[in-house]
Predict the structure.
Amino acid sequence: MSIGFIPSIEAASIVLLDALNKNEATIIKEVMDYVQNNECIGGTADSFHNAATNLARAEAYSCAVAFLEVGHKRYSRDTDILADLIHYGSQCKRIEDIYPYFLELKSVRQRFWTWRAYTFSCDYLMEYIQYTTTDEEENTIEKEILCLLESYKRNYPNDERPFVEESEYYERKHDSERQVAALIEGMDKIAICCQCALKYADYMFKKGEYEKVIPAAEKAVNIREDQPSISLGYTYYILAMSREVVMRKNNMQFTEAVLKPVYDAYGISFNFLEKEGGRSRLQLQIWNRVKALERESKIESNIDFIQ
C-alpha cells in the first residue's frame, strides 16, 4: 500500500504515528523517505515543532529529529526548531553531535530566543559538563550556563522558568542552599509561580519540614493557569499529607473543623489524579490514609472514592 500524497508535515506525523503504533515497517519507511526527500512539504516553523513534539511524545526521537532537520533547512534561524534539535537530538545522538545545533542557536541574537531555546540550551550544557575532560573546560561551560540564566531572566522577566532552570542547575551541583534560594526568588518575584512553589514544597516534603510545605503547596494550587503546568493531584497529595502530619505533631483534637482541610485536600488530590491519568499507588495511599483517619477519629470524610 502506497502512502500517496501527504500535504503537510503535521499530516505526515499523523500517518507516521499510526504506522508506528501498528508496527508497519513499510509505511514507516515510506513516510520518512517522503518527508526527507520532499523539502517543499507544507508547514510553518510551528508546524514542524508540533509534529516533532508529537513524535517525541511517542518516544520516536530519531523520527522527530529527521522532521526537524527538514524544517531547519527552511527555517534555519528559528530558535524553537534549533532548540528541539538540541533537546530531542540528545535522546538519540551522541552529545558531541548536538553541539553544531547549539552553535547555530548561539549565532541568533538572544532577544529572539524562545523559552525553549533557553531551557533546552541550559539542559544540554548541564548534561555536557560530565563529558568535559579538564577543569578549565568545565568552568567555561558553567560560566556559559550562568550567563544564559541571567539572559533568560532579563528577556523573560515575568516568567518563572528561568528560576526553575537555575534551581535545577544548582541541584545538579548538589548545592541545596542555592537550589532552594532560586525557587524562593522565583516565588517572590513572579506572580504565576506554580512550578517554583511546587518544587519548593516537594523539596521540603522530602526533607520532612512539613510546616514549610503547607504555604508553598497552597500557593501552587491557588494560582490559576489556562493550562496547568504542574500536577495538581500530586500537589494536593503532599499538601494533605503535610496537613495531617502537622495536625498530629501538634496533638490537635479530632474535630470536623480540624479534619476538614485534611479530608478536602485528600479528596481533591484523588479526583485530580484520576483526571491526570491516575497514579494508582498514590490513590491507594490516599484511600488508606483517609480510612485510617475515619476509623481513628470516628468522623466520616464523605469522599467519593468511586470514579
About this structure: The CA atoms of residues 15 and 167 lie 39 Å apart.
